[in-house]
Amino acid sequence: xxxxxxxxxxxxxxxxxxxxxxxxxxxxTTEPVYSGSFCPFCPGNEDIVPPEILAYRDSGSxxxxxxxxxxxxxxxxxxxxxxVDLDKRGDGIYDRMNGMGVHEVIIETPKHDVTLASMPVSGxxxxxxxxxxxxxxxxxxxxxxxxxxFKNHGVVAGASVNHSHSQLIALPVVPKQIKExxxxxxxxxxxxxxxxxxxxxxxxxxSQTRMIxxxxxxIAFSPYAxxxxxxxxxxxxxxxxxxxxxxxxxxxxxxxxxxxxxxRLDRVLDNPPYNFVLHSAPFRQDCxxxxxxxxxxxxxxxxxxxxxxxxGFHINPxxxxxxxxxxxxxxxxxx
Length: 335
What we know:
single chain; HIT family, subunit A; globular
């Protein structure tokens, strides 16, 4: 029998369609082939993209040339730009402003055929450290209210370049999804005087039915009301609202569990296309008492169709308890 489950954070209902129950092998995807063989992100092509903002380089190498292990550059085709003023204005009953913001690309490795899942943990650590550095730098810009880190892996997930990279967009507004999370977390805090995410951690550790793995600092689990098959969350056990406040030891531990989860997804689903989004508190909002940063990973295995668009519901054919079991078993496969 199908179930309706409610996400406790954003008050969103999901249909877990058990009658449509699907195993990992049922989600085989035909990933489109990237057109063209030229890659603007490969070493030797540094002059094709805008000048680097941040780079981790070999000693003696020159900016905007080879010898790097990670680069951050402005997006050549940005969704927003920091070269305009906001110019907020009304348009009858509507509101609008200029597309002010910052759009950057984190080129995660110089090796074209390496993914975030296949690179060494030290490489994942570099990526996470670059996220932290750029969020900290952008948080000092009074025009910006929030920064969203996201990754599109594979054509189906929206990646236009077949070279491992992620992106950062900083905006003068707080995105709707983060606002909804903040509202839900604050309501829980007013009612129980506890962090909702900390309560989720406590319950998932206790029940173990949706747990995938844990370390001394993080847990990874399938959320109770997942929108998508094999949706996975990674949350730090220590309460903290802003990712960019994570120290070096925390980044190292985060890199280990993120690498582990991405490798399990590759083993279970055969290198699926996916998106992930880093949810962190707005730059200057005092919400540390009730908000908790986390990473949401969403494999692109199903399509959103008319019912989902029209209702706001998502239909997920794989219960999270089964997802977690498949992901736990993937650790044994690796051994």
